[in-house]
Amino acid sequence: MDRADVLVVGGGVMGAAVAARLSQTTARVLLVEEQDDLAEGASKANAGIATSFYGRPGTLEARLIAESNPRWEDLCGRLDVPYRRIGAVMLAVGPREAAGLPAVYEAIVAHGARAELVTAEQARDLEPLITGDCAGGISLPDEGIIDPMRLTVAYAELAARNGATIERSRRVTGFSVADGEVNEAETTGGPVRVTFVVNAAGLFADEVSRMAGGESFRMWPRQGQYWILDRAFGSRLRRLVYPIPMEHTRGAQVVPTTNGSVLLGPSAADTELRLDKATDLATLRWLLEQTRKLVPDVSDAYAIKTYAGNRPAGDEIFRARFDHNIRNLIHVGSRSAGVSVSPALGDHVLGLLRDAGLAAIDRAEAGDAIPTVPRLLNAADPEELPSLDPRYRHVVCACEQVTAVEISAALESRVPATSIDGVRKRTRATGGRCQGSVCMVGVAFLVSQHTGQPPECIRHGGFGGTLGVGHADY
Ligand SMILES: Cc1cc2nc3c(=O)[nH]c(=O)nc-3n(C[C@H](O)[C@H](O)[C@H](O)COP(=O)(O)OP(=O)(O)OC[C@H]3O[C@@H](n4cnc5c(N)ncnc54)[C@H](O)[C@@H]3O)c2cc1C
User: CA nearest 135: which of 90, 88, 93?
Assistant: First the structure.
């Protein structure tokens, strides 16, 4: 039977971040993810904003965001993850919003985040594309953008390199509990003897808690839809552009991504179907209207894709604490800021575990970095790359300029891609303007070469795991 000092349930950004930190200690770590790849839940659907403030000041979530924010450059350098601290400008459109700016500013600085009230002219200096109706704004220099899928995969890769076991296509289906403690987890890959369990199951955290005899809480999807606009527009935009936040949402934003495209969104609608990721025209039109108020040049003429993701909403919007009933069960989850808390989350969870008696001693020889793969896109000197490896001449995905070298690295890592979508998450191949219509066959061919499966059997990705099967009431 498998044994784990800590069993992490869920391979989204939060579970992977926890596994990465624990892997640097003497604790034996097993992460199980029911889907056939990491980052299949909210962690692949988010905007990738590494924010400097969120929620109410003084909460654990706000504290972890504040602790995480200064770490991004160092962390992403070590984990080979694209990140840029581009800053944001929050706009007041019209005199009524301008009157409310000082209160919004006060709420932000209460987090300890850097912010500055700016005039409309100063706001335009920060981002020339903003609306002529801007009546003032707030500059937020510590807002950053990150590739959230690369980040999730990189946390897991670091964990694996440090000896943690990362198992995909393995679902937790139940627990044996005695005297207020879980002692065994039942999984689709057999039972696991456990000392502690970290429930990082996102939208399904309530189900995992229930199976373990833990607290009863409810999770539901808060759907967010996005447009993705082409790099032709993204190359003109310098910063994140935010509206004045509403009571329950930060509103529809204009979000540059680390690969040069731009996201317009998200919407925020509480729904019931956890697996429903359909977009609808009315919401997409609304997103265009809202974001045009901030940046009038926004246009669906640049659109390359639309999509929806489900935030793991719950009565408690953030959890990183022990269960109240089961002594060795920890819940971690965040509705809207899981990426932004992730650099500091592992330390927090490790602290909880040590306080509860886990002998997890930091190992001096443990790694804190994964190998860097030079990328053709944004390379300082692209001409030099073929001297490192001649396969840099083989551009497989022309839109995103991904070569055979980057794709091979994704297929040969410790937590390798096994599908076309897995390659996209790690390299961006098939994720550009043509959405794979030109390069998908080439990517499938390379996946086939590495996995030994015939090309026609290579899956695109998506619901290849067991998600949805066995989640009886969803
Ligand atoms: C539209 C949208 C925009 C967002 N924007 C941002 C943003 O800009 N910045 C930011 O910081 N955050 C943002 N967020 C929030 C962020 O995406 C989430 O907080 C974060 O992804 C949660 O990570 P997680 O690991 O807890 O959950 P998930 O990524 O959902 O991972 C949970 C995993 O658990 C697995 N699982 C479930 N049940 C089981 C089981 N029984 N056995 C094994 N595995 C199981 C699932 O398959 C899933 O992979 C956004 C979210 C959305 C949807």
Answer: 93
